[in-house]
Automatic annotation (TrEMBL):
SUPFAM superfamilies: ALDH-like (SSF53720). It comes from the Eukaryota. It comes from Morella rubra (Chinese bayberry). This is Delta-1-pyrroline-5-carboxylate dehydrogenase 12A1, mitochondrial. The keyword Oxidoreductase applies. InterPro entries: Ald_DH/histidinol_DH, Ald_DH_C, Ald_DH_CS_CYS, Ald_DH_N, Aldehyde_DH_dom, ALDH7A1-like. The keyword Lipid metabolism does not apply. GO terms for cellular component: mitochondrion. PROSITE patterns: ALDEHYDE_DEHYDR_CYS. GO terms for molecular function: aldehyde dehydrogenase (NAD+) activity; L-glutamate gamma-semialdehyde dehydrogenase activity. Residues 405-809 form the Aldehyde dehydrogenase domain. Keywords: NAD, Oxidoreductase. GO terms for biological process: L-proline catabolic process to L-glutamate. Belongs to the aldehyde dehydrogenase family.
Length: 902
């Protein structure tokens, strides 16, 4: 028997002799696979064994001959032989081969030999785009269907193979077919050239955008410009521009906004680096076209051209125009403008050009001259035209060896490059601070005229911010980096402007007002003075990119300190532009430094420079670390879990609901003072015995709970829209983190989701940020106070999120206990004043937690490290210390003699 098994004595259809274990007995199972393989079937032809051999199936199997398909799959893999014409391959052939692969892959350690991969790399799979090798094919399913049609790419032809082909997803993936929807971008993009139908091209672009595809070579960088629905042309990105606001380039450039929706414009900018607007070079090329046309220009087109030039005027623009322009505009007796050789042009009065502009557009001349300090155009900052943020030290703007790229919070474009200083680059900042003496740059006895200087600077800066063009510039810039509604961003600018206005004229020196107290004898007096610290540091967060840093920076400067200012890099571009405005208004260049750095680098700078005082606005965790590192030389405005208590009297429900909505959800809840918890008075106990969430807002009974407050609050919250940024990106919490927190809260007995609790829809906010609908969760007061729940319930979520609860009059001590146990005491709106410690507390019907104008103190209480902002008292507390000087000039008493020692 051993001899039979080991001797090559069985003849196969391949014409050779083999041992039994290397042979297959042909049967019906082998019919589908046979046409695409060369397998060692026993020769059952009439010329050899004949069909009678099949009568010995049992005996052959006992010798080792392969009978069943499942036992011979290794032969199939090794014997693959596709015909030269792939159209000869039937669906059953392919399905049989995939079944073979399925059996092979049941062994987790199995991998296709190189010889097999070489054989299957031929064109044998039928797609809607013809026959292709597996790695050039895609498998269509419902996930793909969310973006594309099966004819949009080389998808395996399900109509040819039947729906059963999709059951071999794993096997197709193993041989190289792309089955995951996120991995098909290269193949789909490679098919773009074969599409002429505009709707197909748009579908493909939307798919590529959804998975952040970028072309990997110049050949792939082509954009379809439609001409009707089924015709058009492919052009390079360099021939395109997203927008043409002036309407001048329809003949020179392809303007994409004419053909594509806003979302795809963002995609073209980020993936293809298409310019947002025509460049200076484009305008020069346009002028050359006009020069060569021989036609007159309209006043409107001429003004648009030169308005653009003035808006983008710098040394480079000047050189470009000087090299490019041959002719210049001159007046004519007709309605148009002539172009004449520039050597023949005589400018009799430069006001003539100004007058021409003003007659064409009365606001044009002002619009291009009212922001002399700005180094960017807010609307043009984008992935294709990123803005740059520099550092300022020792009187000059500097770059850095490393750049931190900031993503646009609304669409994910890398739209700002921040020159961040690393630990090796802090030396100039350390040296700059060390040059400032402990007695400051000025004090009541040293250069007191600087108090007047800063009054003048404040007046000029206030005036600049009062100009509509400048105010709009900062409002829109704030919106770009910390998205909030226009009104909220404008409010920040207006508060800053009013603050500067408040400290104009003599008001700065009034901050340094001293006092005198009579002494014990003639000639003795004690005088108290407000004294600067000298070198100081300011660290501010992202949520108020203008208001917080300006108010604290100016407060430090008013009192005679030299500050180094660090603003969160995500928004530091706002303060960089404000520093340029302050320099324009007369701020001495050596008086303040501006640094972009990460937290680790800034911490090292503080330790090496050893500022006499540091103002920190931000998280409690960092605040506590800095307090130790800086040995207590610090003032803090850290986290605030802020609350509102509604007493028993129901009044003006619409107004109270509006205030609660504004406090909780304006700026997407990203205010230090945002309402995090709402206590509603309810005298009836056991309010929620067993109710479903749909009836929750209607079953709140008695007083505020009985009123329609919660339903009104829900309606207001649901009216917030991403389109006007009344709800927007959350910059410090991801969507997943906020939803996870919501889920944990809803596991507390008796808790309910009042509204929200879902991600925003139809947006392009990058996943590193959060996108959550305004959310409120009800938590029973008794459950909140339990030790296992309290930390969770009072965790500050810096986003559109609040806790709502209720209390009875008998439970007021429990409410006060809840407040007492909170770590942060920043702001509150409260009926009970005498038993709470929050720093800025609003009381009364119109009370709010987020009212922080320039006319009152804003800051925490109950902490000796607590800082304030906005008022003379806040500035004196944070940015100066008390210095007592005792004058004692005599005269000596008559007959004075040396007394005995004591």
């Amino acid at each position: 028997m051993v001899c039979i098994r080991e001797t090559k004595w069985l003849r196969t259809r391949l014409g050779d002799y083999r041992v039994p274990s290397d042979c297959i007995l042909y049967g019906p199972e082998w019919q589908s696979i046979a046409p695409i393989t060369l397998l060692p079937f026993i020769d059952d032809s009439d010329n050899y064994y004949g069909k009678v051999i099949h009568e010995y199936t049992k005996e052959l199997k006992s010798m080792g001959v392969v009978i069943d398909f499942k036992d011979g799959v290794d032969f199939v893999a090794a014997g693959l032989y596709f015909p030269g014409d792939p159209s000869c391959i039937t669906p059953s052939n392919v399905l049989a081969l995939l079944e073979c692969f399925r059996i092979l892959l049941q062994d987790r350690n199995y991998s296709f030999p190189d010889s097999v991969r070489t054989r299957i790399s031929k064109k044998w799979l039928k797609t809607y785009d013809g026959y292709r090798p597996p790695d050039q094919c895609l498998l269509f399913d419902s996930k793909w269907g969310s973006y594309l049609k099966c004819t949009d790419g080389p998808f395996v032809d399900e109509g040819f193979y039947g729906s059963n082909i999709t059951s071999y997803r794993k096997e197709l993936k193993a041989i190289g077919v792309v089955v995951d929807v996120g991995n098909g971008c290269p193949l789909i993009a490679s098919q773009l050239d074969f599409h002429l139908e505009f709707s197909s091209v748009v579908r493909i672009y939307n798919y590529l955008m959804a998975f952040n595809w970028e072309p990997n070579c110049e050949a792939a960088k082509r954009i379809w410009i439609p001409n009707g629905s089924e015709d058009g042309e492919w052009v390079s990105p360099g021939e395109c521009v997203l927008r043409d606001k002036d309407g001048l380039f329809s003949s020179q450039l392809q303007v994409l906004e004419k053909h594509y929706e806003q979302q795809l414009l963002v995609f073209f900018s980020s993936a293809f680096h298409v310019k947002h607007t025509p460049s200076v070079d484009d305008y020069c090329e346009l002028w050359k076209v006009w020069e060569g046309s021989g036609n007159q220009l309209s006043h409107a087109d001429c003004c648009k051209f030169w308005a653009y030039v003035l808006k983008h005027w710098n040394a480079k623009t000047e050189r470009t125009l000087a090299d490019s322009l041959v002719k210049l505009p001159v007046g004519s007796d007709s309605d148009g403008i002539l172009l004449s050789d520039k050597q023949d042009v005589f400018i009799a009065d430069d006001l003539q050009l100004k007058d021409l502009f003003q007659r064409s557009s009365p606001n044009l001349y002002l619009s291009v001259h009212t922001i002399p300090f700005a180094t960017l155009d807010v609307e043009e900052v984008s992935g294709s035209q990123p803005a740059e943020v520099h550092n300022f030290v020792q009187g000059k703007w500097i770059e850095s060896s490393s750049w931190n790229t900031i993503l646009d919070p609304l669409n994910g474009e890398p739209f700002i490059k921040v020159a961040e200083v690393d630990e090796t680059g802090i030396k100039p900042f350390v040296e700059s601070l060390s040059k400032c003496p402990k007695h400051g740059l000025h004090n009541p006895f040293k250069e007191p005229e600087r108090y007047l200087l800063f009054g003048d600077i404040s007046a000029k800066a206030a005036h600049m911010l009062s100009l509509p063009k400048v105010s709009d510039f900062f409002t829109r810039l704030i919106q770009r980096v910390a998205p909030k509604s226009y009104q909220q961003a404008l409010g920040e600018v207006q508060v800053t402007q009013k603050f500067l206005e408040n400290f104009s004229g003599d008001q700065v020196r009034f901050l340094a007002r001293s006092f005198a107290v009579p002494g014990n004898h003639l000639g003795q007096q004690s005088h108290g003075f407000r004294w600067p610290y000298g070198p100081v540091a300011i660290i501010t967060p992202f949520n108020f990119p203008l208001e917080i840093p300006v108010l604290q920076l100016m407060g430090a400067l008013y009192m005679g300190n030299k500050p180094v200012l660090k603003v969160d890099s995500k928004v530091s571009i706002v303060m960089e532009q404000m520093m340029r405005l302050l320099h324009y208004c007369g701020l001495p260049a050596d008086d303040a430094d501006f640094i972009n750095a990460d937290g680790k680098t800034m911490n090292k700078l503080l330790l090496e420079a050893n500022p006499r005082m540091t103002l920190f606005t931000g998280s409690s965790r960092v605040a506590d670390k800095l307090a130790v590192d800086l040995k207590g030389r610090i003032k803090l405005e850290d986290a605030g879990f802020d609350w509102k208590i509604l007493g028993p009297d129901v009044q003006e429900e619409d107004y109270v609901a509006w205030v609660c909505d504004q406090d909780a959800y304006a700026c997407s809840g990203q205010k230090c003072s945002a309402q995090s918890m709402l206590f509603m008075h309810e005298p009836v106990a056991n309010l929620f015995p067993s109710i479903n969430v749909d009836n929750l807002v209607t079953t709140l009974v008695q007083n505020w709970s009985r009123s329609s407050l919660v339903s009104k609050l829900k309606d207001l919250a649901e009216g917030r829209k991403l389109e006007d940024l009344t709800i927007g990106p959350v910059l410090t919490f991801t969507t997943e983190a906020m939803l996870e927190h919501t889920t944990k809260l809803l596991q507390i007995p008796g808790s309910k989701l009042l509204f929200g609790g879902e991600p925003l829809k139809n947006h392009s906010i990058p996943p590193i940020y959060g996108a959550l609908k305004p959310t409120a969760v009800y938590v029973p007061l008794e459950e909140m106070l339990k030790a296992k729940n309290y930390e969770l319930v009072t965790r500050e979520i810096f986003g559109p999120f609040q806790i709502i609860t209720e209390y009875t009059r008998d439970q007021l001590p429990m409410v006060l206990d809840a407040l007492e146990r909170m770590h942060a005491h920043l702001t509150a709106a409260v009926e009970v004043i005498g038993k709470s410690v929050n720093g800025t507390t609003y009381a009364g019907l119109r009370a709010r937690t987020t009212g922080a104008p320039q006319n009152h103190w804003f800051g925490p209480a109950g902490d000796p490290r607590g800082a304030g902002i906005g008022t003379p008292e806040a500035i004196k507390l944070v940015w100066s210390c008390h210095r007592e000087i005792i004058y004692d000039f005599g005269p000596l008493p008559n007959r004075w003699a040396i007394p005995p020692s004591s």
